[in-house]
Amino acid sequence: MSIARDSTATDTTPAPGAVRAGTATPGSSQATLQLALATLGFLVNFWAWALLGPLGPGIKERLDLSFAAQSLLVAVPVVVGSLGRVPVGALTDRYGARVVFPLVTLATIVPVLTLSVVSSYAALIITGFFLGIGGTAFAVGVPLVSGWYPPARRGFAIGVFGVGMGGTAIANFTTVRLADSYGARTPFLLVAAILAGYAILSFLLLRDAPGRARPTGSAWQRLSTVGRLTVTWQLCFLYAVGFGGFVAFSVYLPAYLRTAYGLDAGDGALRTAGFVVLAVAARPLGGWLSDRLHPVPVLVWCFGGVAAFAVVQAFEPALMPVGTVALLGMAVLLGAASGAVFALVGKVAPADQVGAVTGLVGAAGGLGGFVPPLVMGWVYGSQGSYAIGLMLLSDVALAAAVFTAVKMAGLAARES
């Protein structure tokens, strides 16, 4: 199957009645402000979205859960936040980020506060389901940033916005320490207050780009249209591997480090935070390289490197230095790959459908993070080893590298 050489893949002509996007002055102070606000919103919502990950090992011990049950607990917000990006992206196309961002943030406050009072496994699963709302913020911010920046700078701008996924690092740095030092409810009350503050700030200051494309038709019609683009599903696969790999590590790494290397909950969460920080820092780098080279070669090298590091880690080397180098190497490459994929979205998505494309691609990325923790928990529970799970990661990353090099090469050649 060739790379969407049909006109629908790269046509950026708005639908009838739509207005052209991206007319804002590039580099203007208003564009910078909106990028900063979007990044902040992404960060605080992702902080909330990742609250259960660092607490997972402690909850497992307190409730005497199996590895599979613990994996399901931390994976539920991921899958809900991923699937929720599809309708939220379509709503953002329709109503704009200025309306949708504050609403998503306010809705996330409810499950965060609920987590401060529930304790049973069933209640945690249900609350985690609604906590997934925070993960949909990604599909709000990408169309907002895309509207304020032209294609030549969009890869870097979206990469900067992607720094907001550092909210996962903040969750890992702070959640266990706050709970141990100031009480189990403290992390949830703090995050709820920050979410409320951002909801007010975004309502007052957030603005959609002048000339924002306003698509016609229902949300279902728009999703159906972008769903027929070959390139949409190609991007979904690549993002499922890149961002999905990052999400999987960010939610499951504390449990992996505790089981494989005997680290305590605090140390495991701290090392996971370091993994997330590197991935976050690498995301703008992936966008910057994509603006200057092209996303295709950047993705090939990133996925190839992930495959190699995953093989090394499958042999469970000593944590220092080999295991640390392998895990942090994967962090950098997965972060850069995530930035490169959305640089590619900025190049090929129709201007008035960026939100819908972002929703589908973002959903695929989150779903890519939902499956690996379940697989890792199941593999360890049945085999007593993580080697098979890591080798599967290597196989998938290598397949993504080959797919990108073979099937997506025409896109790079056509745009060079």
Global outline: globular
Oligomeric category: single chain
In terms of DSSP E residues, the strand content is under 5%
The Cα radius of gyration reads 20 Å
The number of helices is: 19
pLDDT under 50 segments (min length 5)?
Answer: 1-27
Instruction: Report the sheet with the most strands, covering strand number, pairing sense and barrel closure.
Output: none
Distance between the termini: 21 Å
Proportion in helices? over 70%
Overall residue-averaged pLDDT value: 81
Structural class comes to mainly alpha
Top keywords for this entry?
19 helices, disordered N terminus, 416 residues, mainly alpha
Summarize this entry quickly.
By secondary structure, this protein is mainly α. It has helices at residues 7-10, 29-49, 52-63, 67-83, 85-95, 97-115, 121-131, 138-148, 151-161, 167-182, 186-205, 219-227, 230-261, 265-292, 295-314, 319-348, 354-383, 387-407, 409-415.
3D structure, described in words:
With 416 residues, the chain is an all-alpha fold. 79% of the residues lie in helices and 0% in strands. It has 19 helices and no strands. The longest helix has 32 residues.
Topology, pairings included?
Layout: H1 7-10, H2 29-49, H3 52-63, H4 67-83, H5 85-95, H6 97-115, H7 121-131, H8 138-148, H9 151-161, H10 167-182, H11 186-205, H12 219-227, H13 230-261, H14 265-292, H15 295-314, H16 319-348, H17 354-383, H18 387-407, H19 409-415
